[in-house]
Design goal:
alpha/beta, Rossmann fold, 4 domains, six-stranded parallel sheet, 10 strands, 66% helix, monoatomic cation transmembrane transporter activity, membrane, RCK_C, transmembrane, transport
Length: 666
């Protein structure tokens, strides 16, 4: 038996590893790779693994650890930060989508309990896929990104009551509404009791283990807490997975949660990967081929329903239609939690095998569609809603700005806010354009002239006075919107100076072709600052550093983009770095050189640098006498290469050229 399980695990890793490498290369989430690997190696694919009972047992461990880590991430601060999105758009999205799906399945003559759980399962979206895509695109801080995170967080929070409902919906003996509500109340009381009871005990246990033990003891204690909480949950009529989720939520409030996440994460990733592979194994390809059109039709229906109601949910909380549409497209897939809940529902007898297969196929197909929908969401929203939104803005009560020769700042994040404060101090007229209502309110309270609107709309830019502006500075994360704004700005004001911040250097030429005058790649300006400080630490003069920075910028950041600098540029760089330089050193009381003669220090023979002069008591001593006594407050003027000067300064400070504590050398 053990030999059989080990062989299956080896096959799992052999197949899933290369598939996930491919998915990583094409920037798709690993969850999708695991599902594809499961389909390939399972009993309905290549039949490399025919008996998946042992794999399913390991997969259940993965679900437990996955829910535990999810519980660890339920921090109160994170919930409060996204409270508006969670309660507003999140509640509306889950509620409306669940009701719509419930209504559809009731009309299709499904039982009430099946329709309810199907509505809740379909309403959930994939946190793993959406978060990876918006993180890779640096859109976490955009309005659409924050809305997606808030709605996903609400969905994750709702997993707890859904898991409570599952066994109750599967109970055939519960017939009346009163009985059902009574069972729900009992389950909720059990959850609250476990949470508060363990909350009193667990932090003290962890603190005690941390004081007397090491990291391994802490990890073992956490595993024990997970298992014990799960066992208590099962004894009280809940599930092991629910207990793990509660344990994670309790430990998230302890001071050890970050270390625990680091320790548990490898285990979670391994076992949860087995879960998603096992889900792929369960997919019966013959059901897909025999019901191909039905599967495609259901997938399209699910994507449309989810997209429409997520869009409507955002629009109802006063989010602009274009952004609402972007969020709707990004949340239109079925999530990984849906797969977990579907498997639990199957075990509870809520679905038969064929129904489960259809749900599984639709879930996987919608997840495969998700990256494409997320990628095209912004561009498609601009094409569909630019005219509609323009009319809405024109009819707004806001007056067009009357500024002239001013700066238009697009985006009031950290960079936009800093620029606004500098312009305010310099008394340079400007106006801020922002789509995030929270940022608009903050800017107005700070006395900043701010307009609420979408910069991808021509009328919004006109309202900001772009026709009469001298410059527009675009500091937003969404590249598609940035490029659209550049093109519109150039169209509205051909003479305006357009300055753009972008993430990567490979976007520089595209934005310049779109009409930008200056494109500043964020990550490589940081790199320039780092190398400037490194060169400064090696005593390269400021004018040489500035020349090199200018050289890199003139070359279009070629060095950082992996492109070759031209021969002339390389010669200049080499000349700058090999030049002979001068440097000064002020002797302090704790310097090794203090109290010694110039001859004792003997810099020329030890480092190769030349002592041009020693300034002592405001009197310069050119080519100083070897017997000159060096005192605190004296200054050495040195000449040499970068390496020679670096070694000389360390010699004067420590008595040797390697740095560190003072030498015993006399």
């Amino acid at each position: 038996m053990v030999h059989h399980v080990i062989k299956d695990l080896i096959l799992l890793l052999l197949v899933s590893l290369p598939i996930n490498i491919v998915f990583h290369r094409i920037k798709l989430p690993s969850v999708m790779g695991y599902l594809v690997a499961g389909v390939l190696i399972g009993p309905y694919g290549l039949k490399l693994i025919s008996d998946i009972s042992a794999v399913k047992e390991l997969a259940e461990i993965g679900v437990v650890l996955l829910l535990f880590v999810i519980g660890l991430e339920f921090s109160l601060g994170r919930i409060l930060k996204n409270l508006a999105s969670i309660l507003g758009a999140g509640g509306l999205q889950l509620g409306m989508t669940s009701l719509a799906v419930w209504f559809v399945f009731v009309e299709m003559n499904f039982q009430q309990n099946q329709s309810i759980i199907l509505g809740l399962i379909v309403a959930l979206s994939s946190t793993a896929i959406v978060l990876k895509m918006i993180t890779d695109n640096a859109e976490i801080d955009t309005l659409s990104g924050k809305l997606c995170i808030g709605i996903l967080l609400f969905q994750d929070l709702c997993v707890v009551p859904i898991m409570i409902l599952l066994p109750l919906l599967g109970q055939s003996e519960v017939h009346t509404s009163f009985d059902f509500m009574l069972e729900v109340a009992k389950s909720l009381i059990a959850v609250v009791a476990i949470y508060f009871l363990f909350r009193l005990v667990v932090p003290k246990v962890l603190a005690g283990v941390a004081r007397v033990g090491n990291k391994e003891h802490l990890t073992l204690s956490v595993v024990l807490i997970i298992l014990f909480t799960g066992w208590v949950s099962q004894e009280m009529g809940l599930t092991l997975a629910m207990g793990a989720l509660i344990a994670g939520m309790i430990i998230s409030e302890s001071e050890y949660n970050h270390q625990i996440i680091l320790d548990i994460l490898p285990l979670r990733d391994y076992f949860s990967s087995i879960f998603f592979i096992s889900v792929g194994m369960l997919l019966q390809t013959d059901v897909f081929t025999n019901s191909f059109l039905a599967c495609l039709g259901l997938t399209v229906l699910v994507v449309l329903v989810k997209g429409v109601f997520a869009t409507l949910a955002c629009f109802l909380v006063r989010v602009p239609l274009r952004i609402s549409f972007v969020v709707g497209m990004r949340l239109a897939q079925v999530g990984e939690f849906s797969l977990i809940l579907s498997a639990m529902a199957l075990n509870q007898g809520l679905f038969d095998s064929h129904q489960y297969q259809l749900l599984l196929i639709v879930s996987i197909l919608s997840m495969l569609l998700a990256p494409l929908l997320i990628q095209v969401s912004t561009g498609l929203s601009i094409k569909l809603f630019s005219k509609w939104k323009s009319k809405e803005i024109t009819s707004s009560e806001s007056k067009d700005t009357k500024l002239k020769d001013h700066v238009v700042i697009v985006g009031y994040g950290v960079g936009g806010r800093t620029l606004a404060q500098v312009l305010l101090e310099a008394k340079i007229p400007f106006v801020v354009l922002e789509l995030d209502g929270e940022r608009v309110r903050r800017a107005l309270t700070e006395g900043i002239t701010t307009l609420y609107g979408d910069c991808a709309q021509e009328q919004t830019l006109i309202r900001a006075g772009l026709r009469d502006a001298r410059m527009i500075v675009i500091k937003i994360s969404d590249y598609v919107v940035t490029e659209k704004t550049v093109r519109l700005s150039r169209k509205i004001n051909p003479q305006a100076n357009i300055m753009v911040r972008t993430r990567r250097t490979d976007q520089v030429e595209e934005l310049k072709n779109a009409g930008a005058d200056q494109v500043i790649p964020e990550e490589f300006e940081t790199s320039i600052e780092i190398f400037s400080r490194v060169l400064r630490d090696y005593h390269v003069p400021n004018n040489i550093i500035e020349q090199q920075v200018e050289l890199i910028r003139l070359e279009g950041y070629s060095m950082f983009r992996g492109l070759a600098l031209n021969t002339e540029s390389l010669k200049k760089f080499s000349t700058y770095l090999t030049a002979t330089l001068t440097e000064s050193y002020l002797v302090s009381e704790d310097s090794w050189a203090c109290g010694k003669t110039v001859g004792d220090i003997n810099i020329p023979s030890r480092t190769g640098a030349i002592i041009v002069a020693v300034v002592s008591k405001n009197k310069p001593h050119a080519n100083p006498d070897q017997k000159l006594l060096v005192q605190s407050g004296d200054t050495f003027i040195l000449l040499g290469s970068h390496i020679q000067l670096d070694q000389s300064l360390k010699m004067l400070r420590y008595g040797h050229s390697g740095g560190g504590e003072k030498s015993n050398l006399t």
